[in-house]
Amino acid sequence: MARIGVFICHCGINISSTVDVEKVTATVKELPDVAFAMDYKFMCSSPGQNMIRNAIREHELNRIVVASCSPSMHLPTFQKALLNEQMNPYLISMANIREQCSWVTKDREAATQKALDLVTRQIKRVSHQDELFDIDVELHKTALVIGGGIAGIQAALDIADGDRKVILVEKSPSLGGKMAQLDETFPTLDCSQCILTPKMVEVAQHPNIRIMVNSTIGKVDGFVGNFKVTINRKATYVDEDKCIGCGVCQSKCPSEVAPNEFNAGLEKRPSIYIPFPQAVPAVPIIDPENCLKLTKGTCGICEKVCPAEAIRYDDEPKEIEVEVGAIIAAIGYREMNPSVYTEYGGNRYPDVITGLQFERLVSSTGPTGGELIRLSDGKVPRRIVFVKCVGSRDEDKGHTYCSGICCMYTAKHAMLYKHHVPDGDAYVCYIDIRSPGKSYDEFVRRAIEEDDVRYLRGRAGRIMKLKNGQYRVYTEDTLIGRPVAIDADMVVLASAVEPQGDAIKLAQILGISYDKDGFFNEAHPKLKPVETATAGIFLAGACQGPKDIPASVQQGSAAAAKVLSLFARDTLKKSARIAMVDPSACTGCLTCAYVCHYSAIEEADFGRRKVSKVISGKCQGCGACVATCKGSAITLAGFSDDELFEEIVL
Amino acid sequence: MPRQEILDKIKVSEKMFLFKPCVGSNKYPGIITSAEDIFPKLDVEIETSEDQACCGGFLTFTNVAQPTSTMPAVARNLALAEEKGLDTITLCNGCYTFLTEFGHFMNDRPPVKGVVNVILSMIGREFKGSQSVYHSIEILYKLKDKIRERTIRPLEGMKFATHYGCHYLFAFKKTAIDDPFMPSVIEELVRDMGGEIVEYPEARSCCGTGLTQVILHKEEISLPHTKTKLDSIQSVKPDAVIGVCPYCIAQLDRMQQKFNYRKIGKYETPVIHITQLIGLALGIEEKRLGFGAHAISFDKFMQKFHKLEKARGEKNG
């Protein structure tokens, strides 16, 4: 005989302003099997939970219904109250009368009726619920970090320092990411590489970190604690164990045709190359599309000059399988190509460059050795215009979002320019100045007040190439309400931050969600900023949204902390809501194994015939097999036909 | 760079309806006569209609009519081509804008279309919205191979500047055949006919006639704009400016005369429509090109053209 307790939450006024909770309480009290019903302002608060516990004791309740928010919000909270009263935590059911009722209507009467419906259905359902018991699963205490930029480096170091193993996978030939390409960093103007390279070296030397560069993720199977990951390592044609990183090969390579990725395409690089002097690992890679040996069978110079005999023209891509317990996606961002901005020249003007190209142009490791000159004629630009929001906050040609970092880096660029050319003119065309961060606004003020950078509030409409080689930037000064034209020697476009080209593909491999722009979605925008909706997969850095270095480092550490707390346990509790096969009803057709996304169904012997069997550690309780089984031989615990029918049929 | 996906949608038929622009009729008849002559030479038969009225743009611009009452005028014009079962070619950015925009407006809003058709029924016509409207530059660009092949008086040695006009490229940012900031369709056509293109910095600027400022508003807004544009054109010394909109052509042509008259400069660059230039290259009778109607004399231009042609003729024996 079920003795059901019903607890109806006001959620402050979130529910009670639209739903007549007192009426719902009074009505459900009269339903059969309901032994107790009450409503309260905040059922999730500790007094609220105590009320549930007291009622369980006083009224000898054996089933509980809570009508409040979504179970994904507070089911664990209420299950804890049951556990504290030695009740099985699966004897509770929640009716969502907030997101699915009070929030979506203003009609009080209809909302009250719907709330009553929803609660009644759960009351009918809960009597059919049985005690279920969670499953213990072993876990692999190794983490996989995807992306070797600053976010991934930070995450890998923190986990490794916590004495857990880390596999750090990087797509390009070296760790470092975007931060390695930067010259100086805001708001302190300290050298980017000087603070980054020690961390890169630390990663390389850490006994707990295994670095896999030139590698991408091919396939991910399994679940939290037990992921099976296939890593695709592309052919590099260089034996990394033999290579001593001397760089002779790249200095002798005759095929300098491909754009130098590290220098943002400002110059060409050889076809065998170490991306930059401080690269980790300092092992070159051959670009097979441009190598003369690999494309035409000629040349072969690098093999001849290599003192370590490390060149392997017959190298092939490899697939490496690893088992990990947690994954951190930290693949960063890419700078938008402003070619669609034909009003700004659409990449056709040599001295109209992007922010990242400017970074390389002023960097001492850049193509000019840190000399700030025009790429078209080698002259020092006497006047330079910085155009912000190119591709950001622009529904028409770019993205709707704010890229977040451009206001700060543009102030920095303008400052760097004034430091290189003190008597030059620097103009910034801006829509707004967004500089919320510690010492950020002061930094922008410093650019304006100390370095005499001229800020013009207005969006540049057009850049026109003049006959004298200058560029006329048409903009406006909305503060004085006038159109302005500036004849500049160089223009720097603060091009938008956008997701990596392969971000969506990776999201699909990982089974995590992404937003309309392709940034990975966090599990909760405020409360779960580093988790994804998939257990065991975490996010760090700009792949989740535009971010600067401090924020990327913070999120890298936060994700590492989440991984370490996961790895602090020896086993993981897994929900009891998994599928079960009734072998006597199973015909052994194994259609269920075919539809299972998680490879959680295997063949087993049942007497003299073969039947299917659920691997409890792998089953995620999605129910695909249940719906597929023609013989109704599979049941999902917690979702039996009885429970569902009681919920559906009023 | 022309947009292939838009070009693919443009259909060149054997017979098309030529919509005559007012500015062409009353200021530059050569634009219409050259168009009437060149399309048949490119295997497109042309039909016109004596019943055709103003596109409706003038009426809306000058606030003499609300769009609700201008709409039937547009619908009537479109119905003329529909009755013949033809797609329309417009020679003017304004005609193109009003015929396409109002045509789409009515097609997308059945109640408006219904009201318009009630009015049209009084004169025994109906607007169905079944035919397309194209800009002449779209059709000519599609015919560019034929233009190249059939050029008998090549423009070799002649230098041209181009002007597209805001109301085609900018107004139809997503549906025009070319990018508003970096277009090249006129340039390609001119090069195909042997001409040389000279680029000038203000190529993307408005001619200054925008919203008939000269007629209705203060000319001190409009004229400095035109002057900047003309100064930029003068600086690269083209033999002529090629436009696709009679309205822009009128502004760029006649304001030169005005500046000369007011002694605020000396301007002498002829401005012509692409159909006139193609007419010249395809060997249309010169008087049908109507250069005489232009405020800025074509004497120098034609002298140079004839001289180069003669020199080529002698060289080739």
Commentary on this structure:
The complex is a heterodimer of chains A (650) and B (317). Chain A is of the alpha/beta class and 650 residues long. Chain A is built from 17 helices and 34 strands. In chain A, helix 4 packs antiparallel against helix 17 (641-648). The two termini of chain A are 20 Å apart. Chain B has helices at 4-9, 22-26, 29-41, 57-61, 67-84, 93-108, 110-121, 136-142, 144-150, 166-169, 185-192, 213-216, 219-235, 246-261, 274-281, 299-315, and strands at 15-19, 45-47, 88-90, 133-135, 159-163, 196-197, 240-243, 271-273. In chain B, helix 14 (246-261) links the parallel strand 7 (240-243) and strand 8 (271-273). In chain B, helix 3 (29-41) crosses helix 15, helix 5 (67-84) packs across helix 7 (110-121) and helix 13 packs across helix 14 (246-261). The longest helix of chain B is centred in the first third of the chain and has 18 residues, at 67-84. The chains are: A alpha/beta (650), B alpha/beta (317).
